[in-house]
Amino acid sequence: MRLLFINGPNANLYGLDPSGTYGRENFGDIAARCQRKAASLDVELDFRQSQDEGEIITWIQQARGEAAGLIINAAGLSYTSIAVMDALLTFDGPVIEVHMSNIHRREPFRNKTYTSKAAVGSICGLGPLGYELAIQAMVDLCRK
Q1: Residue from 14, 22, 114, 131 carrying the catalytic annotation
Q2: Do residues 11 and 56 touch, judged by C-beta distance below 8 A?
Q3: Cα distance between residue 95 and residue 91, in whole Å
Q4: pLDDT digits (tens, 9 = 90+) for 82-122
Q5: Please, how many CA atoms are within 13 Å of residue 82, restricted to the half-sphere of its CB?
Q6: Which residues contact 60 (CB under 8 A, 6 or more apart)?
Q7: Active-site residue 79, yes or no?
Q8: Is 22 considered catalytic here?
Q9: CA torsion angle 75 76 80 82 (round to 10)
Q10: How far is Cα 143 from Cα 95, in angstroms, rounded to an integer?
Q11: Closest CA to 77 of 138, 8, 17
Q12: Catalytic residue among 99, 104, 114, 131, which?
């Protein structure tokens, strides 16, 4: 089973401000943590990050027929990109939206995401643990 995990703009900056919203773990450590989780579940994980909305849309479109499930933290694009939402809606497998922070405890504009319209579920506020839980949930959904 192959899963695609897409991270949007600025996710590569996680951990640079340990006292900040996104905690201490840097993006490379989070990626490694996710790869270990996927390996423990005997699945292949394609873990990516881009600053570019168009590239993210291309990846979503390419995942059709190639990935069993798609996990996305579209970051700032979650609140602004109808184009990312439209691409996710064309994906033929389950989609899970994940956010490091609790978007419902932040600025009001973060309380609603376009990406959630395409997701079977959302996980937010659990930091890197939420990434691992999303992988576990996606494997469970795809194996049913």
Answers
A1: 22
A2: no
A3: 8
A4: 999 999 999 999 999 999 887 777 666 666 799 999 999 99
A5: 0
A6: 6, 70, 72, 84, 87, 88, 90, 91
A7: no
A8: yes
A9: -30
A10: 14
A11: 8
A12: 99
